[in-house]
Design goal:
By secondary structure, the chain is mainly beta. It has five helices and 32 strands. It folds into three domains: 189 residues, Immunoglobulin-like, CATH 2.60.40; 152 residues, Cupredoxins -  blue copper proteins (Immunoglobulin-like, Sandwich), CATH 2.60.40.420; 151 residues, Sandwich (Immunoglobulin-like), CATH 2.60.40.
């Protein structure tokens, strides 16, 4: 079967400073849990074998292999990785765009209303499954860990894309093994477009640039070194962007749309430009904001996405600007550890190099979208989820993950609007080990199958809220979200409607080592 190869256009490769090479990518580690029975009505029919067909309206179809490979990341020995290696079977050629010379999966681009179909084949020696992060999809398509497939097996996905235009992503989700699988390279972007977005005239094509930020540790032989710490989460000492170290983005003097994903296991970034230029934010996890907003810096937690409109028109050819992560204080590590192993350590993320003159100019629209947010007064009820760290294990309302367990207070009704309150305030309003003690940490809380609106942040326990004043102005709470960073000492309330599909889904901390350690629970949407 011939492969459909899709690469950035030559001009973009020149601007972005990326080598020309096709890419196929990520995959897998595993869970020892057995696959729970899934009603056959929820599962798509087997995918037909076919040759690539360009321009099939309404359908994007892929074959995805979870496989081992190796890639040149550093000078010297190649790095062994696990990848999602993707082949386009049906759909427009632009539906699958490899990131040259990267272990990351090719970028999937799809339009609202199209059908996405994929067959995952597990060619690893451990179990795996794919979660389509941020997507509103049926239960059997969501990648629950009870659906993991064994080596040599396949899993078929098929769902209609109903999400609004936005930057979504996909990664493995086997219980107790998610952190290791993502760390070894298994992740990719899933970008949705729609008609209202297309009408805005935002930078597109080569000037719509995805940037995946991750931290890693390399051993003396250039191999990924992973030690999943269930307390802190994994914190690396080297930053990779789109799988490359010392990333340089070569640009022209014109506007760009930059899509940033924090694809790190646990590291939180406090993003800022080296010359203190403000950010113009146009989108978050669930798509475009109603209006552009500005921030001097941005807090970006694991799994969160941010979209920026950046106009380099006022820059001179030869000028460089560095995207940095500024230092901040976060949680129990402060004063106990030092250097790059600490949450909040400073890093250079990437360098933007202005290399070409351009006469292209465009204005950013003052109105970007109609988010159609719900109103808090219409919520049927409020639920509180207490976040705690208890001797190396995270808990949600005192519970840890059990594969098929759903408590009564974790059941919701289809089409109900609710307020969920994530309370990171310690036991009885105080931090473990006292006040702002060693168990208090930020938690990026993620809910499957929904997008929510952050409606309130309240610091209930100032003793725990170490470093809060350093970071609070960097939260972007203005759009639809699926992941919210909850600071120690803080309650965060989100407004969420459980619509479209009934079934069993997950909510969890997206510090992947916390998740693997049990800081995850099921919730059930009842029809």
């Amino acid at each position: 079967m011939s492969k459909q190869k899709n690469i950035y256009r030559r001009d973009f490769l020149k601007l972005a400073g990326l080598g020309a090479g096709a890419l196929a990518l990520n995959s897998a580690l595993a869970s020892c849990q057995k696959i729970a029975a899934v009603p056959t009505a929820l599962l798509p029919a087997a995918l037909p074998t076919s040759t690539p067909v360009k321009g099939v309206d309404g359908l994007v179809e892929l074959n995805i292999r979870a496989a081992k490979s190796e890639i040149q990341i550093l000078d010297g020995e190649k790095t062994r990785v696990w990848q999602f290696q993707s082949e386009l079977i049906q759909g427009d050629a632009g539906a699958l765009t490899p990131i040259p010379n990267s272990y990351l999966a090719p970028v999937v681009r799809i339009r609202q209303g199209q059908t996405f179909r994929a067959r995952l084949t597990n060619e690893l020696d451990q179990k795996t499954i794919i979660h389509w992060h941020g997507m509103k999809i049926p239960e059997a398509m969501d990648g629950h860990p009870r659906l993991v497939i064994a080596p040599g097996k396949t899993y078929d996905y098929e769902f209609k894309v109903i999400n609004r235009a936005g930057t979504y992503w996909f990664h493995p989700h086997p219980h107790m093994m998610t952190g290791g699988q993502v760390y070894n390279g298994m992740a990719g972007l899933f970008i949705v477009h729609d008609e209202s977005e297309s009408a805005l005239g935002l930078p597109d094509g080569d000037f719509d640039v995805p940037l995946v930020i991750q931290d890693r540790i390399f051993d003396a032989n250039n191999q990924f070194s992973y030690t999943g710490d269930s307390m802190t989460g994994f914190l690396g000492d080297k930053i990779l962007v789109n799988g490359a170290p010392d990333f340089k983005l070569k640009v022209a003097t014109r506007p760009y749309r930059l899509r940033l994903l924090n694809g790190s296991n646990a590291r939180i970034y406090k993003l800022a430009w080296s010359d203190d230029s403000p950010f113009t934010v146009i989108g978050t996890d669930g798509g475009l904001l109603e209006k552009p907003i500005q921030r001097d810096f941005i807090m970006l937690a694991p799994a969160q996405r941010i979209e920026l409109w950046v106009d380099f028109s006022g820059r001179k050819v030869g000028e460089e600007i560095v995207l940095k992560s500024q230092p901040f204080v976060a949680g129990f590590e402060t004063g106990m550890m030092g250097g790059l192993s600490t949450q909040g350590a400073p890093f250079d993320i990437l360098t933007v190099s202005v290399e070409e003159e351009s006469t292209r100019r465009s204005d950013l629209p003052s109105v970007l979208s109609s988010p159609n947010f719900y109103q808090p007064q219409d919520a049927a009820r409020t639920r509180t989820i207490q976040l705690n760290m208890q001797m190396m294990t995270g808990t949600l309302n005192g519970r840890t993950f059990v594969m098929d367990e759903v408590a009564n207070d974790e059941k919701v009704n289809l089409d109900d609007l609710e307020i969920w309150e994530f309370a990171n305030i310690g036991r009885s309003g105080v931090g473990m080990m006292g006040g702002g003690g060693m168990m208090s940490q930020p938690h990026p809380m993620h809910m499957h199958a929904v997008q929510f609106k952050i409606i309130e942040r309240v610091v209930d326990n100032p003793q725990m809220a170490v470093g809060y004043d350093e970071v609070r102005n960097g939260f972007v709470d203005d759009g639809w979200m699926d992941t919210v960073l909850t600071w120690p000492g803080e309650r965060v309330r989100v407004l969420v409607k459980f619509e479209h599909y009934a079934g069993l889904y997950l909510y969890h901390c997206h510090n992947l080592e916390h998740e693997d350690g049990g800081m995850m629970r099921n919730f059930e949407i009842l029809a």
